[in-house]
Amino acid sequence: MKKNNLRNRILRKICCVACPFVVLLCVFTGCFDYPVDEDGLLITERSQCYVSSFELLGTDFQTVRTKNAVVDTVACTIEVEVFYGTDLKNLWPQFTLVTDAKLEPKITGWTDFSDLANPRKYTVISGNRKVRKEYAVYITVQQP
After folding, report:
1. Which of 46, 52, 77, 101 is deepest in the core (most CB within 10 A)?
2. CA angle, 34 as apex, 52 and 37 as ends, to 5°?
3. Contact (Cβ atoms closer than 8 angstroms) between residue 104 and residue 122
4. Strands 102-104 and 92-97, bridge-based pairing
5. Average pLDDT, stretch 100-116?
6. Span 21-45, mean pLDDT?
7. CB 91 within 8 A of CB 110
8. Rounded CA separation 9/48 (Å)
9. How far, in Å, CA of 56 to CA of 104, rounded?
10. Cα three-residue angle 75-77-81, rounded to 5 degrees
11. Which of these, 115, 117, 136, lies nearest to 51 by C-alpha position?
């Protein structure tokens, strides 16, 4: 009987200490509201805003690059050379961005890069949605 009585008192003390702690933990972790943007993406504290790599695919979903694209994060330019004979009206660009950043306009299909005199422009937006950098994509065609 004494053992059960002692065990019950110990359990009560543990519950009296642990329960309020668990309740506070649940309250504080549930109070933080993580906002999302119009696309349903999480808005974070990250202010980094850059393109780390770039790929360009043809209609067969194979690369059309002759070599790696040159991404200049200071000048905000991307220079890429494609194979001679590439269909420039039907290319699928792929951007790799810093964590939590997003791209505008969204890439939703094949893109026309045939106007070589006027580069396509894309805007990278930071995770906190406060920094915007416009990148220009310059395409050159390999000589035959």
Report:
1. 101
2. 60
3. yes
4. unpaired
5. 96
6. 72
7. yes
8. 55
9. 17
10. 140
11. 136
Interval 33-48 mean pLDDT? 91
For the chain, list the strands marked E by DSSP: 51-57, 70-72, 77-82, 92-97, 102-104, 120-125, 132-141
pTM of the model: 0.76
Strand order in the sheet with 70-72: 70-72, 77-82, 132-141, 120-125, 102-104
- Dihedral angle at the C-alpha atoms of 25, 30, 34, 39, nearest 10 degrees? 140
Q: Which structure tokens are listed for 17? A: 């200490």
Q: Which two structure tokens, joined as six digits, stand for 95?
A: 């951007």
Q: At 6, is the pLDDT very low, low, confident or very high (cuts 50, 70, 90)? A: low
**Interatomic CA distance for residues 78 and 51, integer angstroms:** 9
Going by C-alpha positions, the residue among 129, 119, 107 that lies closest to residue 41 is 129
Residues 64-99: tens digit of each pLDDT: 999 999 999 999 999 999 999 999 999 999 999 999
- So what's the pLDDT on residue 28? 55
